[in-house]
């Protein structure tokens, strides 16, 4: 623990694609590099975010929010407090419950959709 957020971490909390808009994930993947994080749209009281991972993110937790990870490309490992790492490949998902320490890691560029509550702080509380 005590790790730092990657220097190239780019977090965009603005909603890029509103409701009734086509969400162009391939274009987002072409235009951005690792540790890019963009809110794509909202669904009720949740946000759908696109993350591009490569390397390690620091341990963190979200006190009041669960976080769902779904791998679109590549693979990630989720280190989760109290259990071994979860390896997720393409089209696999995993929910980290609120208030649980975790960190995503990826050996190579990977694209991940995340579903979480409005107002979540991606770097943790």
Would you give an account of this structure?
Helices cover 6% and strands 48% of the residues. It is mainly β. It has one domain: Jelly Rolls (Sandwich), CATH 2.60.120. Strands 1, 2, 3, 4, 5, 6, 7 and 8 form an 8-stranded mixed beta sheet that branches. Strand 2 (36-43) and strand 3 (46-56) form a beta hairpin. It is globular and about 40 Å long.
Describe the SSE topology.
Layout (H helix, E strand, L loop, with lengths): L9 E3 L12 H7 L4 E8 L2 E11 L10 E7 L2 E5 L2 E6 L4 E4 L5 E16 L8
Parallel strand pairs: 1-2
Antiparallel strand pairs: 2-3, 3-8, 4-7, 4-8, 5-6, 5-8
Biggest β-sheet strands, sense, barrel: 8 strands, mixed
**Shape call:** globular
- Helix coverage percent: under 10%
Helix and strand element order: EHEEEEEEE
CATH topology: Jelly Rolls
Question: What is the structural class?
Answer: mainly beta
Number of individual domains: 1
Query: How far apart, in Å, are the first and last alpha carbons?
Result: 14 Å
């Amino acid at each position: 623990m005590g790790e730092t957020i990657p220097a190239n971490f780019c977090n965009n909390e603005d909603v890029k694609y509103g409701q009734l808009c086509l969400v162009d994930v391939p274009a987002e993947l072409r235009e951005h590099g690792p540790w890019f994080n963009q809110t794509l749209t909202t669904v009720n009281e949740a946000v759908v975010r696109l993350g591009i991972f490569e390397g390690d993110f620091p341990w963190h937790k979200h006190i009041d929010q669960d976080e769902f990870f779904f791998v679109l490309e590549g693979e990630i490992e989720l280190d989760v407090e109290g259990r071994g790492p979860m390896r997720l490949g393409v089209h696999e998902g995993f929910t980290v419950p609120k208030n649980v320490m975790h960190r995503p890691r990826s050996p190579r560029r990977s694209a991940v959709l995340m579903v979480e509550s409005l107002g979540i702080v991606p770097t943790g509380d």
